[in-house]
Design goal:
five-stranded antiparallel beta sheet; binds adenosine monophosphate; 5 strands; 25% helix
């Protein structure tokens, strides 16, 4: 899938629409999800134009990949969820119901998060 430069996270990166920022560095931006599913629900995105985890892991530099995962761990610690725990999730593609076509890693925390997938899954 070609990258859509008008997706909502591209617009956030360009400053065209606001976000509640929690972290930023040269390669990464993180902000609160607009529709939180847990007391802590933050989205961590690369600044580069990558559609999904598939695109990112195929085409991003080692520096970009390292920066994204370092940021996830750092943000979780700074938000106070490293203990007692948190979940990260990245939906990639149609079967995963990826809604925004710019790679984003969800960080969920602040309450017990239940099972990994709904019981009806499988
Ligand atoms: P996904 O289904 O993994 O693509 O998740 C997309 C996420 O982006 C959802 O959790 C939305 O609530 C969130 N979202 C959509 N628009 C915004 C926005 N403008 N600011 C923050 N989060 C957003």
């Amino acid at each position: 899938m070609a990258y859509d430069p008008d997706n909502v996270f591209a617009r956030i990166l360009r400053g065209e629409i606001p976000c509640r920022k929690v972290y930023e560095d040269d390669h990464v931006l993180a902000f609160h999800d607009i529709n939180p599913q847990a007391p802590v629900h933050v989205l961590v995105i690369p600044k580069g134009a990558y559609v999904s985890m598939d695109d990112f892991t195929a085409n991003a530099s080692d520096q970009e990949i390292g920066a994204l995962f370092r940021a996830v761990g750092r943000i979780a610690r700074e938000l106070g969820v490293a203990e007692p725990g948190y979940r990260i999730l990245a939906n990639a593609g149609a079967d995963a119901h990826q809604e925004v076509p710019h790679l984003h890693i969800h960080i969920f925390g602040g309450r017990p998060l239940g099972r990994m997938l709904p019981d009806s899954a499988g």
